[in-house]
């Protein structure tokens, strides 16, 4: 307020404060939703030995996620000498927080579906093995694309260019490698961060489309076909 946002009113500040407060309370509620039922099921003896390990890992991830969130927010509250720029959290910590959340969500969903849905016993053909490997590769690419989005958000890189498919008047912007050493551009140059995110996004939807087309050539259970079709639909919407 003293350095930058002189015109901010108390109701405007309260809106930001309550948004952050609600996020923290929601995170704590998620933690309790994991830990309390897990402790109850454990005490009742309803968990098998492998599931106990899985539950411990998920509860540990929940706690780690909260710790990462605190560490991320802390970076936005640190005084920066001789700088009155808009306060923002570290893009590195933001990406770590988002990545941890994605791992936690995916692991939770995988565990839940493994318990609820019986596993299909399919013949291990060469085509099925290739489909599984390609699906894992596509998953990694989507995860990387999401992490690159955290760098876009952390650096406000989305504000640099707002035209597509070109960036301004060029396919490859002039300031793509403006920082030195070159490796810094990937994580700290807003232009490069936005460019990488665009390329990764296009690569992701291309990979998902290819996965869908390849899956049509293999006899798969109805549930698997629905999953692949839903993946394509969500990728197009995204």
TrEMBL record:
<keyword id="KW-0408">Iron</keyword>
<dbReference type="GO" id="GO:0046872">
    <property type="term" value="F:metal ion binding"/>
</dbReference>
<keyword id="KW-0350">Heme biosynthesis</keyword>
<keyword id="KW-1133">Transmembrane helix</keyword>
<dbReference type="GO" id="GO:0006784">
    <property type="term" value="P:heme A biosynthetic process"/>
</dbReference>
<dbReference type="InterPro" id="IPR023754">
    <property type="entry name" value="HemeA_Synthase_type2"/>
</dbReference>
<keyword id="KW-0472">Membrane</keyword>
<dbReference type="GO" id="GO:0005743">
    <property type="term" value="C:mitochondrial inner membrane"/>
</dbReference>
<keyword id="KW-0560">Oxidoreductase</keyword>
<dbReference type="InterPro" id="IPR003780">
    <property type="entry name" value="COX15/CtaA_fam"/>
</dbReference>
<keyword id="KW-0479">Metal-binding</keyword>
<feature type="transmembrane region" description="Helical">
    <location>
        <begin position="54"/>
        <end position="73"/>
    </location>
</feature>
<dbReference type="Pfam" id="PF02628">
    <property type="entry name" value="COX15-CtaA"/>
</dbReference>
<keyword id="KW-0812">Transmembrane</keyword>
<feature type="transmembrane region" description="Helical">
    <location>
        <begin position="93"/>
        <end position="117"/>
    </location>
</feature>
<feature type="transmembrane region" description="Helical">
    <location>
        <begin position="25"/>
        <end position="42"/>
    </location>
</feature>
<protein>
    <submittedName>
        <fullName>COX15 protein</fullName>
    </submittedName>
</protein>
<dbReference type="GO" id="GO:0120547">
    <property type="term" value="F:heme A synthase activity"/>
</dbReference>
<dbReference type="GO" id="GO:0016653">
    <property type="term" value="F:oxidoreductase activity, acting on NAD(P)H, heme protein as acceptor"/>
</dbReference>
<comment type="pathway">
    <text>Porphyrin-containing compound metabolism; heme A biosynthesis; heme A from heme O: step 1/1.</text>
</comment>
<feature type="transmembrane region" description="Helical">
    <location>
        <begin position="197"/>
        <end position="215"/>
    </location>
</feature>
<feature type="transmembrane region" description="Helical">
    <location>
        <begin position="138"/>
        <end position="161"/>
    </location>
</feature>
């Amino acid at each position: 307020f003293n350095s930058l946002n002189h015109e901010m009113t108390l109701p405007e500040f309260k809106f930001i404060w309550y948004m952050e407060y609600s996020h923290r309370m929601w995170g704590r509620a998620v933690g309790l939703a994991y830990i309390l039922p897990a402790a109850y099921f454990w005490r009742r003896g309803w968990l098998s030995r492998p599931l106990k390990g899985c539950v411990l890992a998920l509860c540990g991830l929940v706690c780690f996620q909260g710790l990462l969130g605190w560490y991320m927010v802390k970076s936005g509250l640190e005084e920066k000498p001789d700088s009155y720029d808009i306060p923002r959290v570290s893009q590195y910590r933001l990406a770590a927080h988002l990545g941890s959340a994605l791992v936690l969500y995916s692991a939770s969903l995988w565990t839940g579906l493994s318990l609820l849905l019986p596993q299909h016993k399919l013949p291990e053909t060469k085509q099925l093995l290739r489909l599984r490997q390609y699906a894992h590769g596509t998953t990694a690419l989507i995860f990387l694309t999401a992490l690159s989005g955290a760098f876009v958000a952390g650096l406000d890189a989305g504000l640099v260019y707002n035209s597509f498919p070109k960036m301004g008047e060029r396919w490859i912007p002039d300031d793509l490698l403006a920082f030195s050493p070159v490796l810094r551009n990937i994580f700290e140059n807003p232009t490069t961060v936005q460019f990488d995110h665009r390329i990764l996004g296009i690569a992701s939807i291309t990979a998902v489309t290819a996965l869908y087309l390849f899956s049509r050539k293999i006899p798969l259970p109805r549930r698997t076909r629905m999953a692949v079709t839903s993946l394509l639909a969500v990728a197009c919407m995204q």
